[in-house]
Amino acid sequence: MNILICIKRVPVVGRKIQFTADAQEIDTSSMGFAISPHEGCAVEEAVRLIEKHGGAATVLTLGPVEAEEQLRDAMAIGVDRALHLQTDGREFDPIATANAIVDAVRADGTPFDLLLFGNEAADTGDYQVGVRVAHALGLPCVTGVTALEIHDGRATAHRQVPGGVEIYEVALPAVIAVKDGINFPRFPSLPGRLKAKKKPLVTIEPTWQNGGLQKTSLLNPPEETHQVVILGKGPEAAPKVVDLLAELGLL
Amino acid sequence: MILAYIDQDRGKINEASFEALTLARRLAEQTNAPLHAVVIGKAEAGLTARLGAFGVSALHHAQHEQLNEYAPAAYAQCLVEILDAQKPDAALAAGTERGNEIMAHVAAKTNLPMAANCIAAQAGAAYTVTRLRFAGSLYEEAKLDGATKLLTVAPATLSARAAATAQTVTVNTFTPQLAQADLRARVGARVETASDKIALGEARVVVGGGRGVGSAEGFKELEELAALLGGAVGCSRVATGMGWRPHADQIGQTGNRIQPELYIACGISGAIQHLVGAKGAKHILAINTDPEASIMYKADYAVIGDLLQIVPAISAEIRKRRG
User: Fold this and answer.
1) According to CATH, what is the number of the domain B205-322?
2) A114: CB partners within 8 A, 6+ apart
3) Are B270 and B293 in contact (CB under 8 A)?
4) Is the Cβ pair B272, A14 closer than 8 Å?
5) How far apart are CA B296 and CA A116, in angstroms?
6) What are the residues facing A85 on neighbouring strands?
7) Which residue of A31, A174, B130, B195 lies most exposed, with the fewest beta carbons within 10 A?
8) Do residue A127 and residue B299 have CB atoms under 8 angstroms apart?
C-alpha cells in the first residue's frame, strides 16, 4: 500500500514564550524544533503499516528550508521518500496549506491508499487541514484516531470519546487524522539516520495565498500572579492537606 | 443572523455548546442580528426553553434517520443547508473534538475560512478573533473573512451566561439532503467503558502522577487516594511514555483536559504541554521533591517531599478522620 504522511515542523516551547519585535512570530533563536506530536505518531503508524502490509511511505511537509530536518527524521525511522513544499518562512493559513497539499498530491501522481495527518498541529491548532484535503480529493475522513487497523482495502479506526470508544470503518483510499497515544514513536537509529540522508527528497515551491484567516499578532496570555502556599514538608504535612480537602468540601 | 451549533450525543447536550452560544449572542448583539441555533437528531426535553433563555429566537432542528449515529460530514451538511438558505453572518460551535470536526467539514464543503478555538471575537466586515495557539500557552489575534465567518469557541475559556431577556423560540424542523459521500465515515459501533470509573474530564478531584511516581506500582498509592476522594487518576506524558499508565489517562495538550475542584499533581515537574490540560482546575496542589519545579508557578498549594511517603500519609489521615 501507498501511504502519505503530512507533518509540520514546530518549535518546542517552554514556560515563557518570547516574540520577535513585530509580534508576528515566536522568537525561536533559543528553541529546538520537532515534528508536531500527533504527526510524529502518524509517521510511526505509517512505518508500522508498511512493515506489516508492505508498500511505500511518503512524508510531506509545508515549511521553511529548515523543515528538511523533520523530513529526514521521518525517513530515518523508515519512510521511503519526501516531498518538501518549501516556503520562504511566511505562514500559510489552513486553506492555503490544504490547497498546496492537494496540488502536490495530484502532481506527485502516487495513488495513495492512506493519507495520514495529525489531529491538529501543536502550534496553530487549526483542526481542519486534513478534513479540507479529504473533501478536495473526494475521500472519507476520520479524525481523532487512537487505533487503526487496515484489512481488505478498509480501515477500522477507533476514537476515544468521554465514556468509551467510537469505531469507524471506511473504504480506502481515506484520510485519517491520528492522535498522540495511537503508538509510541521509535527513535531513529544511527544507521537509519545515515540511510535517510540518501533517500529521495523532492522540493516544490507552493504559491502563498490569503485563505481568509490572517494572523495580525501573537501575545502571551495574562500572567497569573499568585503565590504558592507551602503546606509543609514530607508526610508530616498530611493533616494540613486533609484540612485543605475539608475546606474545599472534598472530604 | 448568527448561528450557533448545539452539540449533543444521543440526546445528551454537551454543555460547552452554551459557552459557544454565549459568544454567538455577543456577536448577534454587536451586529444587531437575530440569534439562531441548530441541533441535530433527537433533542433533549426542555432544550427549547433553555435556548430561549440564552436569547435564541429560532431553532433549526435537523431530523433524518441517518443522523441517529454521528457522521461528521452529514452533521456538517445540516449546517451547510442553513448557511445556503439563510446566509448567517457567522456560525459558531464549541471547540470540542466534535465541534471542531463538524466545523472543519462545513469549512471544507463551503471553502470558507475557519478559526478554531477562539476566546473572543469582534464583528466587522472581517471579524477580529483572539484564538488559542499551543493549546492556550499563546494567543493569536487574527482577521477572519468569509461570507459566513466560521469559528469554534475554546471550551472553559468563557462562562455560559443567559440573556438579559428570554426569547420565544420558533422551531423549524427540516430534513437535510444527505449524499452517500456524507455517510461514508460514521460511528459503526461503540465500546463503553465501565460506568463505575469516573471520567477524568468530569472528576471533582484528579490525582495525577508523573516521573516522580517512579513505576507502575507507585500509581497504586495514587489510585487509593483517588478512590477515597471519589476522584480519578491521571498522568503526564512521561508516565505514558514509560508504559506506567495507558494513554487514555494522560492529561495535557495531546491528552485529556481536566476541570476538577482540586488537581493533586504528584511528582509532575509541570511542562507547559501538561499544564494546558490542567488549566481548568480550580485549585492545584503540587507534591514534589523540588521546590523550584515549574509546577510551583501554577500550584496554589504545595507539599515538598517524596510523594511515595506523602500520598499514603494523606490517605491514612483521611481514614483516621472518617473513623
Assistant:
1) 3.40.50.1220
2) A1, A2, A3, A4, A46, A49, A150, A155, A172, A173, A174, A176
3) yes
4) yes
5) 38
6) A62, A204
7) B195
8) no
Structural domain boundaries enclosing A232: 2-247
Strand stretches in chain B, DSSP E: 2-6, 8-9, 12-13, 35-40, 58-62, 90-94, 114-122, 127-133, 138-144, 149-153, 170-174, 187-192, 205-209, 232-235, 262-266, 283-288, 301-304
Single out the residue of B191, B203, B257 nearest to residue B16, CA to CA: B257
Contact B210, B265 (CB under 8 A): yes
Nearest to B210 by CA among B177, B185, B234: B234
Of B136, B142, B316, the CB nearest to A215: B142
Residue whose C-alpha is closest to residue A10's, from A43, A42, A37:
A37
Q: Say whether B205-322 and B2-183 share the same fold.
A: yes
Inform me whether the C-beta atom of residue B8 falls under 8 Å from chain A C-beta atoms.
no
**Is the separation of the CB atoms in A235 and B305 below 8 Å?**
yes
ipTM of the assembly? 0.94
pLDDT at A249 over 90: yes
Query: Which ranges constitute the DSSP H helices of A114-160?
Result: 129-137
The number of distinct structural domains making up chain A is: 1
For residue A158, give the DSSP letter.
E
Homologous superfamily of the B2-183 domain (CATH): HUPs (3.40.50.620)
Chain A residue numbers with beta carbons less than 8 Å from the beta carbon of B305 are 233-235, 237
Residue B202: pLDDT band (50, 70, 90) is confident
Could you tell me if B89 and B125 are in contact, meaning their C-beta atoms sit under 8 angstroms apart?
A: no
Cell numbers that stand for A81 in this block: 521518500
Q: CB under 8 Å to B227, separation ≥6 — which residues? A: none
- Residue spans of alpha helices (H) in B32-59: 47-53
For the four alpha carbons of B205, B209, B212 and B216, in that order, the dihedral sign comes to positive
Q: pLDDT tens digits, residue range A3-56? A: 999 999 999 887 678 888 888 888 888 788 999 999 999 999 999 999 999 999
Cis peptide before A173 (omega within 30 of 0): yes
B291 contacts chain A (CB < 8 A): yes
How would DSSP label each residue in B243-309?
A: TSS-GGGBBSTTSB----SEEEEES----HHHHGGGTT-SEEEEEES-TTSGGGGT-SEEEES-HHH
- Hey, is the C-beta of B84 within 8 angstroms of any chain A C-beta? no
Cα angle vertex B20, ends B91, B175, to 5°?
A: 50
| Spans of all domains in chain B | 2-183, 205-322
Choose between B13 and A138: higher pLDDT.
Answer: A138
Rounded Cα–Cα distance for residues B92 and B90 (Å): 7
* Residues B187, A168: C-beta atoms closer than 8 Å: yes
Q: Cell numbers of A120, please? A: 491538529
Chain A neighbors of B317, CB-CB under 8 A: 238-239, 241-242
Which CATH number goes with the domain that contains A51? 3.40.50.620
Q: Distance between CA atoms of B309 and B8, rounded to whole angstroms?
A: 44
